[in-house]
Structure formats: structure tokens, C-alpha cells
Amino acid sequence: MLYPRPLGSTGLDVPILGLGAGRIGDPSLDDAVAGRILNEALDLGLTLIDAAPSYGVAEERIGRHLAHRRHEIVLSTKLGYGVEGVPDWTGEAIARGIDRALVLLRTDRIDVAFLQSCPVETLRRDDIAAALADAVASGKVGVAGYSGDNEPLDAALESNRFGALMVSVNIFDQAALEHVTPVAAERGVGIVAKRPVGNAPWRFAARPTGDYAEEYWLRMRAMGLELGDRWFEVALRFAAWAPGVACSVFGTAMSERLSDAVEAVSKGPLDDETVGAIRESYHAHGAAWRGEV
Ligand SMILES: NC(=O)c1ccc[n+]([C@@H]2O[C@H](COP(=O)([O-])OP(=O)(O)OC[C@H]3O[C@@H](n4cnc5c(N)ncnc54)[C@H](OP(=O)(O)O)[C@@H]3O)[C@@H](O)[C@H]2O)c1
């Protein structure tokens, strides 16, 4: 496992880098390539793999290509929606969603199950909390988590119902570092950082209108940091070594990128001057920026 750390007080140890399987689930990606990347990720020590029903065929591919290595993996997925014939965001959607994921992932236990970015009213609902608590009590789920940002993230932390939170943390999205990660650390709530390189906005010369990275591209321009050819390395080291972050889930379907990512985080934390410049630039420009869900 690559630089193992405790995930809060959950009892799970997680690597500093995990694989977000969003890109792996793309049905247009060759299945053999997907299988190779999943196995390479484990070989490189990225032993937390994060899936979701919304990531195409990710759960099915993880089950098919990694079931024989299940004991090496901290497996996480998302809940709340996507069960055929069941209304989303109901207790039944949680319970049946867990059973559905267990079948696809070919396992009898999901290590961390995150409610995926539902609003405050939903994450506070008793039927949803009860279904999740039942799954933990039965052992189908190890840790109940919430994945999201802003007010719902604050409410999830305050509720004390979740042992782990998945939040956006990157150079362009530091809101959670201000208010959430310090409190989570005090309470033993484990933090998984999503979007750790901010969807790599530096790869676009002009504003990528309509692209997932558009908002972060605008923030990158506003912040005015000059990182030249070091963007990827600096971005990943900033997120992975951010105080309070246990694991950063990096999303790629390219094997070179996986090894580059490992090489980057293996250089250790950024120097204080670089972190200071990134934090200062965010404070100067990003006071009103919200976490990107
Ligand atoms: N609400 C939620 O629950 C939620 C929301 C967002 C994300 N997540 C989790 O976080 C994971 C990561 O999120 P993410 O993929 O959106 O963010 P990310 O890891 O910050 O960015 C990955 C994207 O940037 C590209 N990229 C990375 N480095 C690059 C480089 N040097 N040059 C060019 N392109 C580069 C990758 O393309 P290639 O594939 O071509 O490498 C990929 O499209 C997801 O898979 C998921 O597990 C969860």
C-alpha cells in the first residue's frame, strides 16, 4: 500500500493515492485495457478503488477484473440512486443499492459506502440513515460515508452519522480545507479527497466551455499561479499531502498517468513556500468559491 494512513477512526488503513474509477467505467474504453489499469493500480499501491453506479460499467469491471485480489483492496462505492424499479433516495434504494453493488463488485462487503451528493434534507432523513445503519450492522458495509461539498458536507459532518467523507480538495478548490478537514480530524472522521488535480485545467490553452474542467480553468486563471510544466506534480502533491486528507482518489484510464501520479506523491509534501503561495492565492481570489460537487 502506498504510504498507508488511517482513515480517521474507522479502523481502515488507506493509501495516500486511490483510483477513482469514473474513467474506468466508460463503456467505450476497451475492457482488457480497463482490466490492465485496475490491476496496475493495485500493483502500484493504489489499493483504494472508488466506484459509483453512475460510473458506467465501473462496478462490474472492478468485480470481474479484481475479485481474485479483493483482499488487497479498500473498496468504496456510492449509494442513493440507480436501482431499477426503486425510487431514488429512499431507504429501499439504499438497501437494494447495496445488494446490487455487492453482486456487481463480486464481494460480500463494501468497505466504505458513500451517499452520493444528496442535499441536506435527504442526508438527514431517518429512513435513509436506518437503511445505512442496518447495512453496517449486518456487515454488508464497513463504514457509512457521505460524498459531497458545501452545506450538505457541513451537515454530514455535524450529523455524526458518517465515519468518512469524500470532498473536493485541490489547488482550485480549498473550501473544505478551511472548515471541514480540521473538524473531521478532531472527531476521527476520515477524509477522502476527490478531484485531486482539479481535472487538469492547465491542459486547455483556451477556456474549455462546457468541459468538466471549465470552472477550475477559470479559477486557475484568476489565481495566477505560474507552475509551468510542474502543474500535475504540484497539484497532486498539494491534495495528497494536505493536512487531514487520508487518501486522494485520482481519476484516470491511462497507465502512464498512474505511474506519474505515484512518482509525484512519492516526492513527499510540497515545501512550505509553495503551499503558502497556493493558499495565499486561494485566499486572495477564492473567498466566494464553492466546492465543486
Ligand atoms: N460526487 C462524487 O462522489 C464525486 C465527484 C467527482 C469525483 N469523484 C471521485 O473522484 C475521482 C477523481 O475525480 P476526477 O476524475 O473528476 O478528477 P481528477 O482526478 O482531478 O482529474 C482526472 C481527469 O484529469 C485528466 N488528467 C489528469 N492528469 C492529467 C494530465 N497531466 N494531463 C491531461 N489530463 C490529465 C484525466 O484524464 P485521463 O483519464 O486521460 O488521464 C481525467 O480526465 C472520481 O473518479 C471519483 O472516484 C466523486
Report on this structure.
The protein has helices spanning 31-43, 58-66, 91-105, 120-123, 126-138, 150-159, 175-179, 181-187, 214-223, 231-240, 255-265, 272-285, and strands spanning 5-6, 13-14, 17-20, 48-50, 74-79, 110-116, 141-147, 164-168, 190-194, 247-251. α2 (58-66) links the parallel β4 and β5 (74-79). The strands form two sheets. An eight-stranded parallel barrel has the order 3-4-5-6-7-8-9-10, surrounded by seven helices. The protein has a two-stranded antiparallel sheet with strand order 1-2. It has a single domain (5-285), classed as NADP-dependent oxidoreductase domain (TIM Barrel, Alpha-Beta Barrel), CATH 3.20.20. The radius of gyration is 18 Å and the shape is globular. The protein contains twelve helices and ten strands. With 293 residues, it is α/β, with parallel strands linked by helices. The structure holds NADP nicotinamide-adenine-dinucleotide phosphate. Residues 20-23, 50, 78, 116-117, 147-148, 166, 194-200, 203, 232, 249-254, 257, 293 line the site of NADP nicotinamide-adenine-dinucleotide phosphate. The site of NADP nicotinamide-adenine-dinucleotide phosphate has 28 residues, from β10.
